[in-house]
Amino acid sequence: MKIASYIGLVCGLAVMTGLIAWQGVGDILKILKATGWMLLWVPLVWVPSALMNARCWQTLFRSGFEPTFQQAFFAQWMGRAINTLLPVASIGGEIVKARVLSLWGINVAHAGASAVVDKTIQALTIIVWGAMGAILLSVLALDDELALTILISGVFFSAGIAGFFLAQQAGMFGFLAKSAYAWTRFSLFERITTAADNMDQTVRELYQMPRRVFVATLWRLAALVSQAAEVWLAAYLLGAPITIVEAVLLKSLTSTLSDFAFIVPNSYGVQEGAFVVLGGLIGMGPDLALAVSLAIRIRELLIDVPGLIMWQHVEGQNWFKER
Questions:
Q1: How far is residue 12's CA from residue 16's CA, in Å, rounded to a whole number?
Q2: 284-322 in b/e burial notation, b at 16+ Cβ within 10 A?
Q3: Which of 17, 84, 178, 214 is most buried, by the most CB atoms less than 10 A from its CB?
């Protein structure tokens, strides 16, 4: 998986670089510079999404085990930064955010189990979010064939989510730990078998709280919808105003396609290509579409990089504390 992520990173950056070179680096920079400092507002409109995602995750704990909202927010922030900036196939951040909560005193089994359930809900809501975009694509009579292709892809992706859910119900962590011990005979795998079984049991218990799972799903879906604001604002500031419906369409489909290509770190190239294709359907030129995509990526510098630094700070504090 790690090798595949590195290959995806190289290919994605190559596509991204090719698209920018195709439209002309100078022309795109000219479009971005024309807005001045106003583009710094684009990352700020993403903040409500981060708050709702933190509330979603906080909901997925049993009473008495949940973190504070502040803890959930900062751990989620660090996890997202890792998934965005590092080649971890969108999995490493989930592990880190659970670890950070455990360092802050949250029960390890609950931190890990809630991260697994949260990741499942993330995948589920992406399917719904993508379906919304595909329906808009068809309703607006922009490209029925593309809409159908996205919906069919969503069906296959849904099958994968269903398989992941069934694996959780079957106790996948205990199975993996026992299988690893049987194969390698390493004492480490034998020692973690009990912990893995506890996590499996906690995962099943969390799914037995349907109201919490439903509310968390609504929070996660609302967070996705709110992210359309950054596309609308970026397009407006860059001199290519679009409607809210068009912004929802662009954000839902570009983010869904990016998530489908999770093996490409930070969807480099995938996001840009999606904006060029989909932006063209609503009358946006490829240079402006690329500029909108790059404007959205400003968030990675202003929000995700500090999240990565914060993670290193937390790990550093723990390292010194242990010694």
A1: 6
A2: bebbbbbbbbbbbbbbbeebbeebbebbeebeeeeeeee
A3: 84
Residue 58 zone, left/alpha/beta (φ > 0; ψ -120 to 50; rest): alpha
Amino acid at 120: T
Closest C-alpha among 246, 262, 220 to residue 91? 262
Tens-place pLDDT, residues 46-87: 899 999 999 999 999 988 888 999 999 999 999 999 988 887
Q: Residue 225 corresponds to which tokens in the numbers above?
A: 């919808």
3-state secondary structure of 65: coil
CA 72-75-76 angle, to 5 degrees, is: 80
Q: Which of 58, 63, 64 is nearest to 97 (CA)?
A: 58
- For residue 171, the SS3 value is coil
Which one, of 231, 237, 235, 229, lies nearest residue 39 by Cα? Answer: 237
Q: 76-117 pLDDT, tens per residue? A: 999 999 988 887 777 888 999 999 999 999 988 889 999 999
What whole-number distance in Å separates Cα of residue 24 and Cα of residue 303? Answer: 27
DSSP reduced 3-state for 263: coil
Q: Tell whether pTM > 0.90.
A: no
> What distance in Å separates the CA atoms of residue 219 and residue 52, rounded to the nearest whole number?
6
